[in-house]
Amino acid sequence: MRSGTLSAVVTLQHATEAPNASGRIVASWATTAIFRAAVVEEAANDTGKPEAIIGKRHITIRCRERDDVELASRVLYRGRPYEVVEIKAHDRRGLEIRAVAKDAA
């Protein structure tokens, strides 16, 4: 994987629970890593799949190999959260992460 193709900045987050000021347990997301990646973004409308009706957006992220990405993780790209749905090896030392998000608009 060539470093010149890793032009996007992606944030990796994991779910966490912590007590708030009143002592109630609140679920939130904690940032665990910020890394460079190559992001290929494709709108669901172009795929012809039924997901286009409910406004889902799919992205594929290619990055250097990491061991902290899980299916329970989420990634932030351009301020939008995406849930990780698939993780697989790419090339010899790369990782490909497929993620999906519902459009807010």
| H and E order | EEEEEE
Q: Tell me the distance between the termini.
A: 34 Å
Largest sheet features: 6 strands, antiparallel, barrel
CATH class: Mainly Beta
Q: From the coordinates shown, what is the CATH architecture?
A: Beta Barrel
Which overall shape is indicated by the principal axes computed on the Cα atoms? globular
Q: Please, what is the average pLDDT?
A: 83
Count, helices? 0
Could you say which structural class the secondary elements and strand pairing correspond to? mainly beta
Q: What count of domains describes the coordinates?
A: 1
**CATH superfamily, please?**
Bacteriophage SPP1 head-tail adaptor protein
In what order do the strands lie side by side in the largest sheet? 1-2-3-6-5-4
Whole-angstrom Rg: 15 Å
DSSP summary, beta strand count: 6
The name of the CATH topology is: Thrombin, subunit H
Low-confidence stretches: none
Range of strand content: over 45%
What level of helicity do the residues show?
Answer: under 10%
